[in-house]
Amino acid sequence: MKEDFDKLLEFWKNNEGTGKLFNFEFIDYKKGYLKLGAEFSSLTFNPNKNVQGGQMTSMLDDATSILLVYESGGKLYPNSTNLHSIHHRPLLDGKVTVLAKIIHQGKNIASIKGEIYNSENKLATTLMHTVFLHKKN
């Protein structure tokens, strides 16, 4: 399983602009659940040297999408219809843990929850992500 995720994360890094930014590393997977390590580079910091909130949302967009792509065997690609992020605290350094959980998946729409935890394992950001499931040709 780790090898499958490593291949998917390598594909994400090499074929997605944002995949190059976040340096995802596989930690754990169960059906409907994914845990990744990640890191924000200094390119994602705001002038106050905190991670910019939109970058956190972008990371969670990617992580929740990776879970859906993996579970579909690469046959579905999520197209966001709604991203709602809540920022609980600033991120003062770049190393984080990311969780993605499928809340509900139907034939055409899915809802996924994403969370970022800081290096002290405190919740920094929550994302509710709604997607249209596009079938890959």
Q: Which percent range describes the beta-strand content?
A: 35-45%
On the 0 to 100 scale, the average pLDDT is 91
- Summed up, the helix count is 3
Based on the coordinates given, report the CATH architecture.
Answer: Roll
CATH topology: Thiol Ester Dehydrase, Chain A
Structural class: alpha+beta
The largest sheet has its strands arranged as 1-2-4-5-6-3
Instruction: Please summarize the sheet with the most strands.
Output: 6 strands, antiparallel
* Element string (H = helix, E = strand): HHEEHEEEE
**Distance from first to last alpha carbon:** 24 Å
The CATH class is Alpha Beta
Q: What count of structural domains?
A: 1
Shape: globular
Rg from alpha-carbon coordinates: 14 Å
> What is the CATH superfamily label?
Hotdog Thioesterase
Fraction of residues in H or I helices:
25-40%
Sequence stretches where pLDDT stays below 50 over 5 or more residues? none
- Total E-strand runs: 6
